[in-house]
Design goal:
alpha/beta, six-stranded mixed beta sheet, two-stranded parallel sheet, 8 helices, G_ENGA, nucleotide-binding
Length: 253
């Protein structure tokens, strides 16, 4: 809408110095008269600009395809890839997946909110623990019924399934206060179909009454998750840090 300004040239200079694949995006391309300023963007030296409207979704799908084409070319070195254990974190929204990962990492790397669905896409973080190198994949929460018309929700779900498919181990995180829901069972069934090693995490255990029979509680969970009968179960609290150290130990096994 406004064309380029001196700051754009400064940013372009920094990008060129990095010598990385670059995409020039001209937003607000649906505004009347904006096409008259498009020729200015060629002065930046990045070739044809992608004309989009983030507000109205104009050409955004083409831009995503272009970005994905670049990402697909980025590969880890064979040796490096072989030495990394891929661990995806799966579960319903608001069960504490991101908080749990932050606790394992020992720092707040993932945004955490009380509102379900803060993590809308899979987030990958490499974590080294002694000689063990892990690639944690914090996935978007899988809702009971994803509305087909909500594109972001739909594609987040697809990417979550893809993350599980590419993982070596899956951490199925559940809310201890809610027990096993139908959605938990569906997720467990999917993990079993993918034949993935799984660790069941009963998070928010600090909210469970102290006098609970833990063995009976775990037996009930295991009965409900019949698809994952042989999977180890760990009771944790991402808030207090209770038993979170056992997750890495169990992954090592």
């Amino acid at each position: 809408k406004e064309g380029i300004n001196p700051d754009d040239f400064k940013v372009a200079k920094v990008i060129r110095e990095k010598d990385k694949p670059s995409i020039l995006v001209a937003n607000k391309g649906d505004v009347r008269g904006s096409e008259l300023k498009l020729y200015e963007f060629y002065e930046l030296g990045f070739g044809d600009p992608y004309i989009i409207s983030a507000e109205h979704g104009l050409n955004v799908d083409d831009l995503l395809d272009k970005i994905i084409s670049y990402i697909s070319k980025v590969k880890l070195e064979p040796e490096e890839e072989e030495n990394i254990l891929k661990v995806s974190i799966l579960g319903k929204p608001n069960v504490g997946k991101s908080s749990l990962l932050n606790n394992i990492l020992g720092e707040d790397r993932i945004i955490v909110s009380e509102h379900p669905g803060t993590t809308r896409d899979a987030i990958e973080i490499i974590f080294k623990h002694n000689s063990l190198k892990l690639l944690f994949i914090d996935t978007a929460g899988l809702r009971d019924k994803a509305k087909p018309k909500e594109d972001v929700e739909y594609y987040s779900t697809l990417r979550t399934f893809e993350a599980v498919h590419n993982s070596d181990i899956v951490l199925l995180v559940m809310d201890s206060t809610q027990g096993v829901s139908m959605q938990d069972k569906k997720i467990a069934n999917y993990i079993q179909k993918e034949r993935k090693a799984c660790i069941v995490i009963l998070n928010k255990f600090d909210l469970i009454k102290d006098n609970i029979d833990k063995k009976l509680f775990i037996d009930e969970i295991r009965y409900e998750l019949s698809f994952l009968k042989k999977s180890p179960i760990i009771m944790t609290s991402a808030i207090t840090g209770y038993n979170t150290d056992k997750i890495i130990s169990k992954i090592k096994e």
